[in-house]
Fold:
Amino acid sequence: MFKTYDLFNYRDINDLIPEIIYLYLFKGESLKAIENKLFNTQDYKGWLSKSILNYHGIDTEKDNRGLYNNKSVQEVVDELYASSDISHIRVAKLLKDKYL
Structure:
């Protein structure tokens, strides 16, 4: 069983979620690379990042990795807020609160 509770002792999960989203959608980081960068572990093999992204409506099985690498956060937030999909609006709010 994974001991994820140890990973969040030093940092608020609400601060980490937008960073995971940003690294995946804007920087094109792999799921494993995100965990190595943010948690300094490879024990989860991308599972933790994948779970968080999927929970927020970001499909990690298709072409979303690096989807916004040529756009600014402001452009993407505006685009997502214009959507009628509630998961897009939630992601826009997370990015806006952290990066704008």
About this structure: Residues 52 and 99 are 18 Å apart (CA to CA).
